[in-house]
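Reviewers of the previous submission asked for a worked example of the structure-prediction workflow described in the proposal, so we include one complete record here. The input consisted solely of the amino acid sequence. No template or homolog information was supplied to the procedure at any stage.
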Amino acid sequence: MTEKGRKYLSDILTAMDLIEDFLVDTPDFSLYQNDLKTQSAVERQLAIIGEALNKLK
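From that input alone, the workflow returned the following C-alpha coordinates.
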Protein backbone atom coordinates (compact mmCIF):
# COMPACT_ATOMS: atom_id res chain seq x y z
CA MET A 1 0.00 0.00 0.00
CA THR A 2 1.21 3.49 -0.78
CA GLU A 3 1.97 6.13 1.82
CA LYS A 4 -1.08 8.09 0.63
CA GLY A 5 -3.24 5.00 1.05
CA ARG A 6 -2.04 4.56 4.63
CA LYS A 7 -2.77 8.25 5.29
CA TYR A 8 -6.35 7.87 4.01
CA LEU A 9 -6.87 4.78 6.18
CA SER A 10 -5.49 6.67 9.15
CA ASP A 11 -7.88 9.55 8.45
CA ILE A 12 -10.80 7.10 8.32
CA LEU A 13 -9.83 5.50 11.63
CA THR A 14 -9.40 8.90 13.27
CA ALA A 15 -12.81 10.04 12.02
CA MET A 16 -14.41 6.82 13.32
CA ASP A 17 -12.83 7.37 16.75
CA LEU A 18 -14.07 10.96 16.82
CA ILE A 19 -17.61 9.90 15.91
CA GLU A 20 -17.53 7.36 18.72
CA ASP A 21 -16.32 10.07 21.13
CA PHE A 22 -19.00 12.52 19.99
CA LEU A 23 -21.74 9.95 20.59
CA VAL A 24 -20.60 8.60 23.95
CA ASP A 25 -23.13 10.77 25.84
CA THR A 26 -25.91 10.22 23.31
CA PRO A 27 -27.48 6.86 24.17
CA ASP A 28 -30.43 7.06 21.79
CA PHE A 29 -31.42 8.57 18.48
CA SER A 30 -33.96 11.01 19.90
CA LEU A 31 -31.21 12.75 21.90
CA TYR A 32 -29.06 12.83 18.77
CA GLN A 33 -31.90 14.39 16.76
CA ASN A 34 -32.15 17.23 19.26
CA ASP A 35 -28.40 17.92 19.44
CA LEU A 36 -27.47 19.97 16.38
CA LYS A 37 -23.88 20.38 17.49
CA THR A 38 -23.32 16.63 17.71
CA GLN A 39 -25.12 16.08 14.41
CA SER A 40 -22.87 18.60 12.71
CA ALA A 41 -19.72 17.07 14.18
CA VAL A 42 -20.73 13.52 13.20
CA GLU A 43 -21.75 14.57 9.70
CA ARG A 44 -18.41 16.33 9.18
CA GLN A 45 -16.51 13.20 10.16
CA LEU A 46 -18.69 11.09 7.85
CA ALA A 47 -17.81 13.50 5.03
CA ILE A 48 -14.12 13.06 5.84
CA ILE A 49 -14.56 9.28 5.69
CA GLY A 50 -16.31 9.57 2.34
CA GLU A 51 -13.59 11.79 0.90
CA ALA A 52 -10.86 9.45 2.12
CA LEU A 53 -12.65 6.41 0.66
CA ASN A 54 -13.02 8.14 -2.72
CA LYS A 55 -9.32 8.97 -2.78
CA LEU A 56 -8.37 5.48 -1.63
CA LYS A 57 -9.76 3.87 -4.80
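The radius of gyration is 13 Å. We consider this example representative of the routine output the project will generate in years two and three.
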